[in-house]
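hiii, so i know i said id send this last week but things got crazy w the move. better late than never?? heres the sequnce for the chain we talked about at the cafe, plus the structure i predicted for it. fair warning i was half asleep when i ran it
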Amino acid sequence: MTVNREIHLAARPQGWPTADTFRLVTTEVPTPGPGQLLVRNQFMSVDPYMRGRMNDAKSYIPPFALDAPLDGAAVGEVVAGEAAGFTPGDTVVHGLGWREYALVDARRAEKVDPSLAPASAYLGVLGMPGLTAYAGLLDVAALRPGERVFVSAAAGAVGSLVGQIAKLRGAAHVVGSAGSAAKVERLRALGFDAAFDYHDGPVHESLKAAAPDGIDVYFDNVGGDHLEAAISALRLHGRVAVCGMIAQYNDTEPPAGPRNLALVIGKRLTLRGFLVNDHSHLREQFVQEAAGWLRDDKLSYDETIVDGIEQAPEAFLGLLRGDNLGKMLVRL
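okay and structure toks below
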């Protein structure tokens, strides 16, 4: 192949992104130089954090550049290149998604074992979402056996794994919130003790019914009313692992914020934000443990797959709408 297709950022969105935020661009397939790999991407990831990178604002990661390809996690096959430790045919994970062919510095590519799990799994259950769930629950929130856990966006790539890992590590009661009746049923099938659709009524009422004895740990993917409800439900010395706040990513006005933050004092709560890259030292341990759970059918994962690079923008918008069950991926 000599033709490569990429998705560029055409405009910075105000509020919700639209189709006009993106542009499909045709380029030539690049030629690798010394220490580089040409990778034919098989799957690319779309993730909530990418919404923040569309803004021209200072953050923990640089914004996407206008009129240039977006980037993000991808997995694919090495088709050319000379770099120590790599040969054509290897499957690698790297950070140059949103394009069909990627020219990757070998030092920024990680070779993975496709016999351990399908290639797509290295963008989900064995990739960044899996490590996020593992590190956030066990390291940041320091879950202890016998504790009670609440997970928001629990049918997503991270949340669905948090709930299962909590049960595997001895949690007494795990509650998840999701955005549809079908997702609630899926959470129950995954072993959650209780689950509710947050559209069915005020979150604090649904959480109180699902966890009448309160919670010790809240894994926050949503923010807003979910965080407020969790603060009310948390018991003495409860902990919150703040992973994301997707409820406000497209807001154009500042959020009202939890109205009950004063409870943090009397309950001696801990609210801790985290980035998965801060916990890379756990990656080997996580992959070994998660691979064992997968092998023993103790851990399940879902994927929502959209086909074609031209559909990547719609896949991203669908992620923000909550259309996905588990990990949202684009198959190239």
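btw The longest strand covers residues 36-45. thought thatd interest u
miss u guys!!
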